[in-house]
């Protein structure tokens, strides 16, 4: 089993790998076999999978369709000790092969930290049988291995830990700030907070100096925004006596920070022929939180705006978005594309049920005021917490199911509860003493 020797890679609900905080995908190759040389306690034989190169790992995913609950494997670039270089990866009679040496510990598992004593080198080979730019993949493999991004992350983690420990040591009565002044009590806390915000403001100022600085600090800005969002969330849970205006501003700030961006957007350059497939999976992961906030259904146009805003400069066309959504039928993802009879397209969870919406609409139209006056799309939008355009589609669907009747006037559409099922066809003048029809008759008679 490969899982006995290679670390397991966690997958999202759409089958994409869960990336590390600062990890970026660089290249994709399909139909790749990963195998190792014969060894006593190390054997890897992985057939026809997707190979993803990131700044930190070489990830192998099982072929489509991905079985539920399955996981991929990965080789940390930190464990790679040597790459076998060839002048050309192309061959007329054989599939391209890429060989590299990895450090393996005495327990037969890949040494992820290169710190285990007694480790040895094992040669692993990637056999690339699919279509793709193999030479570009190998070039990026060399570039990422030499870049050693994982070492920079460790240095940043160590520096942040030292700064945090310094803050914690200074939080007592003997703490000092950066200028050497003693920080005591509330004044010391306020001074530390001021220093943190000044540092944050400096980072923002430096990042927006020009476009090059912005691009180089994009990852830092996204991570900073995520920290600010988490701080706002923790602050809102602790401050119970805040007024509505302050809570509204915090929610606005959270919405803005959530849309700062995707750290590793799928691009045509990195994914190649797998672009729409990987874009579809990434989109399925992205729409999870917007769907939760909108009640399980959201307009396709809204997702297009949110997704492009999160991708930053890597914008996609409406055709790419529609094609990515149409591929969800081939994948085991929890979302789907739906088209109403009017032509409006929305994205919804597969667990979404119209019956729940119909029940809320029926409760709304059977109230005393609405029994006489009916409801509009705006009234339903306020009750359902969705946009009026979406509420109108729900009302039209409820009408097609026989729950509502529609009245068209110069003022627009108004919908009423359908009373015809309660009318006895044999005697139209008989009014029962129970039911919605009896309630409607009482309200109209007393009006």
UniProtKB/TrEMBL annotation:
GO terms for biological process: protein transport to vacuole involved in ubiquitin-dependent protein catabolic process via the multivesicular body sorting pathway. Residues 153-179 are annotated as: Disordered. Residues 9-157 form the GLUE N-terminal domain. GO terms for molecular function: phosphatidylinositol-3-phosphate binding; ubiquitin binding. It comes from the Eukaryota. GO terms for cellular component: ESCRT II complex; late endosome membrane. It is found in: Cytoplasm; Endosome. Transmembrane segments: none annotated. Component of the endosomal sorting complex required for transport II (ESCRT-II). Component of the ESCRT-II complex (endosomal sorting complex required for transport II), which is required for multivesicular body (MVB) formation and sorting of endosomal cargo proteins into MVBs. Belongs to the VPS36 family. This is Vacuolar protein-sorting-associated protein 36. It comes from Trapa natans. The lineage of its organism: Eukaryota, Viridiplantae, Streptophyta, Embryophyta, Tracheophyta.
């Amino acid at each position: 089993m490969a899982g006995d020797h290679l670390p397991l890679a966690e997958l999202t609900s759409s089958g994409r790998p869960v990336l590390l905080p600062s990890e970026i995908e660089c290249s994709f190759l399909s139909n790749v076999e990963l195998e190792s040389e014969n060894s006593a306690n190390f054997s890897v034989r992985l057939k026809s999978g997707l190979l993803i190169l990131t700044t930190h790992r070489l990830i192998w995913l099982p072929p489509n369709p991905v079985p539920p609950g399955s996981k991929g494997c990965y080789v940390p670039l930190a464990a790679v000790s040597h790459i076998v270089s060839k002048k050309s990866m192309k061959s007329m009679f054989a599939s391209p092969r890429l060989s590299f040496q990895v450090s393996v510990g005495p327990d037969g598992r890949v040494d992820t930290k290169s710190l285990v004593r007694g480790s040895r080198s094992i040669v692993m080979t990637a056999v690339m049988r699919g279509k793709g730019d193999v030479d570009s993949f190998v070039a990026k493999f060399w570039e990422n291995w030499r870049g050693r991004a994982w070492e920079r992350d460790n240095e940043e983690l160590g520096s942040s830990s030292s700064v945090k420990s310094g803050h914690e040591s200074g939080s007592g009565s003997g703490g000092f700030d950066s200028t050497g002044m003693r920080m005591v009590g509330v004044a010391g806390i306020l001074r530390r907070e001021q220093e943190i915000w000044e540092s944050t403001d400096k980072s923002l100022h430096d990042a927006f100096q020009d476009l090059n600085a912005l691009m180089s600090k994009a990852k830092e800005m996204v991570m900073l925004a995520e920290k600010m969002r988490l701080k706002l969330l923790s602050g809102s849970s602790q401050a119970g006596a805040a007024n509505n205006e302050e809570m509204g501003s915090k929610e606005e700030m959270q919405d803005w920070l959530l849309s700062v961006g995707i750290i590793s957007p799928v691009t045509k350059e990195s994914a190649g022929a797998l672009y729409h497939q990987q874009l579809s999976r990434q989109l399925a992961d992205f729409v999870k939180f917007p769907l939760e906030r909108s009640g399980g259904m959201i307009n396709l146009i809204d997702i297009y705006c949110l997704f492009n805003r999160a991708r930053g400069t890597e914008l996609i066309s409406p055709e790419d978005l529609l094609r990515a959504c149409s591929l969800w039928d081939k994948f085991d993802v929890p979302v789907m594309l739906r088209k109403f009879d009017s032509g409006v397209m929305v994205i919804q969870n597969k667990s979404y049920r119209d019956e729940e919406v119909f029940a809320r609409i029926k409760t709304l139209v059977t109230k005393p005021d609405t029994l006489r006056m009916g409801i509009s799309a705006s009234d339903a939008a306020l009750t359902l917490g969705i946009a009026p355009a979406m509420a109108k589609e729900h009302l039209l669907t409820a009408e097609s199911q026989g729950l509502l009747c529609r009245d068209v006037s110069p003022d627009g559409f108004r919908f009423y509860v359908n009373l015809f099922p309660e009318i006895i066809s044999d005697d139209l003048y008989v009014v029962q003493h129970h039911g919605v029809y009896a309630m409607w008759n009482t309200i109209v008679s007393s009006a």
